[in-house]
Amino acid sequence: MSTTPALPAVVGLPLALAAGLAVPVQGRINGALGVVLGDGLAAALISFGTGLVVMIVVTLVLPGARAGARQILPSVRERRFPPYYVAAGAIGAFFVFSQSLTIGLLGVALFTVAAVMGQTLSGLLVDRAGIGPGGRRPATPMRIIGVVLTVLSVVWAVSPRFGAAGELSTWLLPVLLPVLAGVLMSFQQAMNGTAALHYGTPLAATLMNFIAGTAVLLVAWLIKLAVAGPGNPLPTEWWYYLGGPMGCVFIGLGALLVRSLGVLLTGLCMIGGQLIGSLLLDLLFPAAGTVVVLATVAGTLLTLGAIVLTTLPWPRRTRTGDPVDERVDGRANG
User: Fold this and answer.
1) 3-state secondary structure labels for all residues of the chain
2) In terms of Cα–Cα distance, which of 209, 193, 323 is closest to 253?
3) Which sign does the torsion angle of CA 236, 227, 215, 34 carry?
4) C-beta of residue 16 within 8 angstroms of C-beta of residue 264
5) What span, in angstroms and rounded, lies between the C-alpha atoms of 72 and 236?
6) Which of 33, 118, 167, 170 is deepest in the core (most CB within 10 A)?
7) pTM to 2 decimal places
């Protein structure tokens, strides 16, 4: 079992936001790599492959990571958690696959909204069912309000880019794929957090994610290679290969934080970090067709407000004469 203490919210929330910042940078890098290679699946495989190399090096170098890796087989053999949890990385591979398959048709904005909608709704349900390592977390009215406000805020933030989606009939069915990918992301975080608890470190859970994800993408790419042939040669610029290491940060912190924050709040904070990171990228390193308007900034800020809402308790009305009230009054009058 993990010896890492649960983190207080004042530490966990900024860490989750920071983890989310890596996602749009990773997406920009992987997207550019896909264009250079002429093969989005190969770009995803390279991203997972480089992440796997980083995690192997980390595991060999750090004693804590080596100890966690040695707990993987005993944890599965002794069924400390459902064995299929070790395949959580396949969900990440499916998410990347859905990106490569649908973003060209839906556009980044609609893909983002669909994935966020799936992730926030499933995060609420996963917490309520107690699937993650933090146990059951009730779907309080404040958490439900926060989820609804988050989805609306993300819609507002990315609304300037909706023109890329085209007619309703062209994206109504394909949009179900990123919704499903978003739903599965909450389960992935819960599975990783539970596995990390038994391994003793989130580093071992991150390693298993990249092993599973790389294996799935390698099989898919080999099938594509046999059918369509290879893409363009690998680029020589070093920055094309940073997507994998950024994924290590995102997955590792997610596995660490779900124990302290729960699946829903971890996911919401990472979504907030993604919007902030996207905004900073658009301002500092704008891509072709970038649009930054009032809705982009205001929607991002409103998302952060929605995240804060989910951390607040639902106000309860106290009755006059309650023992608690009498004790408080007694202290006040004393």
Assistant:
1) CCCCCCCCHHHHHHHHHHHHHHHHHHHHHHHHHHHHHCCHHHHHHHHHHHHHHHHHHHHHHCHHHHHHHHCHHHHHHCCCCCHHHHHCHHHHHHHHHHHHHHHHHHCHHHHHHHHHHHHHHHHHHHHHHCCCCCCCCCCCHHHHHHHHHHHHHHHHHHHHHHHHHCCHHHHCCCCHHHHHHHHHHHHHHHHHHHHHHHHCCHHHHHHHHHHHHHHHHHHHHHHHHHHHCCCCCCCCCHHHHCHHHHHHHHHHHHHHHHHHHHHHHHHHHHHHHHHHHHHHHHHHCCCCCCCCCHHHHHHHHHHHHHHHHHCCCCCCCCCCCCHHHHHHHHHHHC
2) 193
3) positive
4) no
5) 36
6) 33
7) 0.80
pLDDT digits (tens, 9 = 90+) for 268-312: 888 888 888 878 887 887 766 666 778 778 888 888 888 888 777
Q: What confidence tens digit (pLDDT) does each residue in 99-150 have? A: 777 766 666 666 777 888 888 888 888 888 888 887 788 888 888 888 888 8
The encoded tokens of residue 315 equal 């106000």
